[in-house]
Structure to design on (755 residues):
């Protein structure tokens, strides 16, 4: 099994774990963590793609690496924003659930401004 | 951008305008953050006319030259560099965004004013900066010539939009914002995965280069399905709409207006880019039918739910859900029956007219709903009695915006509807025509419901808390007039035949029919009717329609649960992937695709080393260098199948 295949399989496993976590865990913090696992899986996929450059005699294709770095920054910003919202929600409401478990009644769930 | 004529390697004359249109809002954000305090509002309001001017200049330059404007960042040619490109679609959306943001800015001055005697308050500070940030992100979406830049722009758009939802900091809105963010992130991860697969297969994410290289193989089809569905999640197409109603109804009115009018159009715009520009030959008729079917479900489902709402802002939010469905009806109608390719034509024009028309009308409706809320202290439909007398301008703006959406000439929606109906007739897809007609009845229904409540006599004297600013109300009215008069675009670039005379007997008949059908739907489905509406027809209609409405509400409750929405998301990926695979001509990879995937020495090596500038001849002719030698010359231009 070549290293590229191993990386690809790990990426797929991380994507699967992350997806599972995002769907199943009701708590937002776990969803945020699951998103990070999912994102890491996709970044590994970019890493696999970067190995293409090896065919041209390079150690790796630099473009996907640049994309991954940008993607990491984006994922970091997303995580930070989500955590800030979550903290604020906890401060305001005293709990941090998204309230998905109870079927949402469209007319009572929100009171518009 | 299918014709890359000089586009790929030359900066066109108006190219610097594209840079300016990104730089101006972003510079506005930076200066506003640095200046702080009450200067933020002034900076934002100064930026708006400037940005509008640039957008108009881009559109004028396009009309003058007739070719896309191109700018290469740093002088680097794709695939290593990143290009900005503006075609007609970009220009139309940029002008729309500038107009809507300008009107929202004028309206928001009353709501987001820093009070006298205070240096800086949190909500206005955040609002003005986020408004400019959304604008910058939208312009990036409209101008990017590269799928990864589009990803970053999409994320910037989401990050600027999410805090707008929770600007007032109440737990409900924070919850809505968090749900919006998490679901949007799931969508963008799907998009990013698709981008990774495409880069892996083609070595570039530039739209023009990809459109020349794209071929049918499993990785590309998977990428197309992942990206499409990821974008649908961000556009909140039913059944991926769990985040939209609470987010759009809970945000402050000016924020809702921007979210509903523009932010969801950002991801829609990328779907258009993807299907029409990157891979026109790939999705095939079956996947287009599925996309259209989702749109049709959104129209009917969203409209029924809009009629069932008791609050004005929730009604407008669900109406957005329905109107987003119209945008996706163009995809099946844009498929050329002979070749199975998605082609640019009248259907695309109709979709873009609908997008512009909905953007202006919906912004007007949200602003008007906000003005009504601010004045009455609530937005319950049942309590709107006497509102038309007390607040004539906001109610007029709301109703005109609604009428524009129903598709009565000369509104933009009527032009879109006419073009789509014509396309349905020529391609023999009568079922989309049926959906279009039915949607018109529902839209008329909820506009009539609001109008009836607002015109009914007040139960108790209407106490207007705050009169609101006249200029702000005028801005809302102006936006709804924009949408209502958009049909006169047929005097300019739109097809002349698309506008019919609103006073011709046929049109009058269909308008009368629309009003009668809409009234029946409003009576049947509306939860609260104005006082004095009773009788045999009312009872009969309610007996038939109420179970339907209740069933739709139950379905909405189920679909909007997080796990259900996530599973729908994955199921849609599988469905789109499967349909695209089924439409692909040969299931077994053709010899050229096989060679391409193994990156034979001739293909990959020569391509990459040329792109990286390692061979002497590289920079002079990027077109020749970037197209792999294994690519047959005949199929290079049209995204053809092997």
């Amino acid at each position: 099994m070549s290293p590229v295949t191993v990386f690809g399989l790990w990426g797929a496993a991380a994507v699967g774990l992350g997806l599972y976590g995002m769907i199943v865990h009701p708590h937002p913090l776990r969803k945020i963590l699951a998103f990070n696992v999912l994102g890491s899986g996709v970044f590994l996929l970019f890493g696999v793609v970067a190995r293409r450059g090896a065919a041209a005699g390079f150690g790796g294709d630099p473009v996907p690496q640049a994309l991954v770095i940008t993607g990491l920054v984006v994922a970091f910003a997303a995580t930070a924003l989500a955590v800030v919202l979550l903290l604020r929600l906890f401060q305001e409401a005293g709990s941090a659930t998204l309230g998905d478990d109870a079927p949402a009644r469209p007319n009572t769930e929100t009171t518009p401004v | 951008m299918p014709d890359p004529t000089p586009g790929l390697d030359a900066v066109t004359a108006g190219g610097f305008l594209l840079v300016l249109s990104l730089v101006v809002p972003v510079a506005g954000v930076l200066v506003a953050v640095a200046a702080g305090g009450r200067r933020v509002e002034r900076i934002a309001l100064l930026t708006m006319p400037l940005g509008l001017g640039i957008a108009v200049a881009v559109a004028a330059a396009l009309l003058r030259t007739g070719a896309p404007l191109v700018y290469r960042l740093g002088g680097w040619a794709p695939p290593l560099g990143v290009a900005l490109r503006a075609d007609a679609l970009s220009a139309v959306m940029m002008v729309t965004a500038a107009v809507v943001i300008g009107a929202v800015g004028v309206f928001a001055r009353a709501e987001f004013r820093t009070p006298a005697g205070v240096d800086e308050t949190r909500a206005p500070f955040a609002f003005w900066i986020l408004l400019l940030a959304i604008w910058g992100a939208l312009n990036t979406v409209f101008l990017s010539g590269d799928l990864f830049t589009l990803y970053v722009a999409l994320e910037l758009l989401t990050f600027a939009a999410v805090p707008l939802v929770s600007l007032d900091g109440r737990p409900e809105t924070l919850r809505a914002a968090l749900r919006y963010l998490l679901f949007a992130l799931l969508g963008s991860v799907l998009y990013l995965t698709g981008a990774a697969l495409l880069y892996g297969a083609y070595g570039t994410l530039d739209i023009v280069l990809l459109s020349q290289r794209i071929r049918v193989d499993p990785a590309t089809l998977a990428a197309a399905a992942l990206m499409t569905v990821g974008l649908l999640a961000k556009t909140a197409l039913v059944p991926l709409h769990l985040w939209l109603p609470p987010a759009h109804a809970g945000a402050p009115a000016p924020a809702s207006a921007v979210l509903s009018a523009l932010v969801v159009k950002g991801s829609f715009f990328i779907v258009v880019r993807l299907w029409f520009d990157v891979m026109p030959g790939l999705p095939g008729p079956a996947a287009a039918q599925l996309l259209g079917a989702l749109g049709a479900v959104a129209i009917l489902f969203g409209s029924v739910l809009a009629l069932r709402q008791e609050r004005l802002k929730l009604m407008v939010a669900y109406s957005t859900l329905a109107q987003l469905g119209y945008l996706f009806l163009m995809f099946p109608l844009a498929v050329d029956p002979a070749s199975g390719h998605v082609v640019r034509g009248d259907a695309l024009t109709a979709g873009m007219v609908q997008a512009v028309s909905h953007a202006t009308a919906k912004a007007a409706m949200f602003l008007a709903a906000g003005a009504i809320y601010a004045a009455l202290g609530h937005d319950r439909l049942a309590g709107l009695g006497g509102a038309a007398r007390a607040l004539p301008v906001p109610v007029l703006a709301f109703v005109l915006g609604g009428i524009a959406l129903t598709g009565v000439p000369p509104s933009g929606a009527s032009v879109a509807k006419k073009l789509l109906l014509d396309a349905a007739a020529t391609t023999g897809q009568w079922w989309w025509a049926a959906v279009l007609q039915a949607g018109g009845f529902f839209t008329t229904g909820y506009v009539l419901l609001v109008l009836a409540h607002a015109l009914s006599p007040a139960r108790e004297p209407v106490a207007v808390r705050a009169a609101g600013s006249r200029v702000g109300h005028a801005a809302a009215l102006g936006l709804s007039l924009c949408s209502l008069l958009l049909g006169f675009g047929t005097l300019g670039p739109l097809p002349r035949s698309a506008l019919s005379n609103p006073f011709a007997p046929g049109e009058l008949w269909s308008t009368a029919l629309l009003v009668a059908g809409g009234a029946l739907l409003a009576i049947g489905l509306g939860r609260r009717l104005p006082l004095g509406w009773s009788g045999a027809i009312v009872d009969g209609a309610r007996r038939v329609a109420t179970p339907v409405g209740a069933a739709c509400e139950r379905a909405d409750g189920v679909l909007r649960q997080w796990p259900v929405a996530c599973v729908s998301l994955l199921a849609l990926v599988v469905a789109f992937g499967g349909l695209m695979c089924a439409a692909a001509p040969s299931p077994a990879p053709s010899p050229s695709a096989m060679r391409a995937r193994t990156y034979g020495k001739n293909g990959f090596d020569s391509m990459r080393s040329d792109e990286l500038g390692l061979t002497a001849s590289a920079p002079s002719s990027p077109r020749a260098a970037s197209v792999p030698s294994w690519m047959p010359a005949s199929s290079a231009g049209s995204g053809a199948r092997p």
